[in-house]
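Handout, section B. The chain below has 512 residues.
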Amino acid sequence: MGDELFFLGLAVAVAVMAGRVMARRLPVPEAILLVGLGLLISLLPGVEDVRVDPEIVLNLFLPPLVYHAAFLTTPRETRADAGPIAIMAFTLTCATALGVAFAVGWAVPDLTWAAALALGAAVAPTDPVAATAVMKRVGAPRRLVTILEGESLVNDGVALTMFGLALSALSHQVTAGEAATELVRVVAGGILYGMAVAWVIGRLRPLIREPGGQIVLSLLTPFVAYIPAEHLGLSGVLATIVVGFWLGIKGNGVLQPASRLTGQAFWEVLVFLLESTLFVLLGLEITDVFAAMTGQSWPRLAATALLVIAVVVLLRMLWTLVVVPLLRFRRFETIDVRQRVVMGWAGMRGAITLAIALSIPFGVEHRPLLLFLAACVVLATLVGQATTLAPLLRRLGLGESDAEIKEETEARAATLEAALSRIDEMAADDRVDDRTADVYRQLFELRLDRVRSILDEDDAQPQLGKLRKELVRAQRDKLDQLYRKGRISTRTQRKLLHELDLEERRRASRGH
């Protein structure tokens, strides 16, 4: 069994790399290619007998994916649109889960209500990765991106809580009163536990200065938040969201500026590997799914899949265009019809749905059918919606706004002005000679990239190293000041901080 697992892991790794290469050359979504490669792997000798424990899927994949999404949430923008985010995340997620449960229960009469609700909870949460990647590339309104990201973060917690209740109902009878009491306990307990973990990690953070140790701590954090909470019968996903959100707004969490770039690269690679592996695992499961449904009517299966997909897609469009406007919520009324159309169409399902579906226990009746339907929803939304979102944005004229371009330009100018002011202060205090001050004063009036190239090349005098540090510090302080005053967004602040991090890393690598 050990050798089989090793070769399986090797085959999955090769599939992930091959899918990445093929996606750049073929007009096919990468997720589809990964599922196909997983299907091919399942045909290899010996692999068909290897099964991935659903508990491993849930405990290994879910915590870092949820934590990463919460960590990158933009706090001030999310708070400003908390109303629309909450309405979409809570009401639409519950409506989708219940709608899918009713639909599949009607289409498959012998399916229990708990199993139908488990499927509904699995396909209810949206995945922001595909949608926001397209929107950022096209330059969609930042507020729209923020709402979709915030919604996907909250609806993960809502869906997983419903999924947990559905699994409990599969094992024993649960009354409505017991379900309500359990829901309050699970949600409140998860949030409180998450706050406690965030406090402890926040205290540990200043004690670990070495970059490798900081990255290890950041990797352990989601598992420390999720797994103990689940063992205590609390919401592990809510605990993980609280920890990620809290650390994300506290100076980029556990990562110091010196190691922030390395940490960001590490997490980007990790999340890519986890999401890609989930699609490959789905392909591995397809053979067993098809084998388990042998003898069933394929036209009826196709009709059931189309019904579930229609409920998921149409219910979201109905919610954004009709239901939510009827509520006349003030913040939502400022979102025009074009943006609501995009919000409705940007409801792709992805890694979270796969993680939930794959974690359905093997003993659950109709598990292959539930997994099949969940896979159909994921693939249909990725193919049908992700590939058409960019043309839709262009058709509706939702490109990058002049205000956003102006904001970033003004932020860049403000940081350069802060550096120029610091040069004047240091020259007035005789901490740097006039000749050097004049040189750097001229440099900072040029383009930012030219300034960096000259800073990297010039190490003639020891005092210039101190000057460089002072100039970078001045720019960081100015960005922090602009953010606190609300003059720039989190996205702009992080983008410019990222550029300063790159500058410091280049200088450190050369021993400056």
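Note. DSSP finds 22 helices and no strands in the chain. Compare this with the example in section A.
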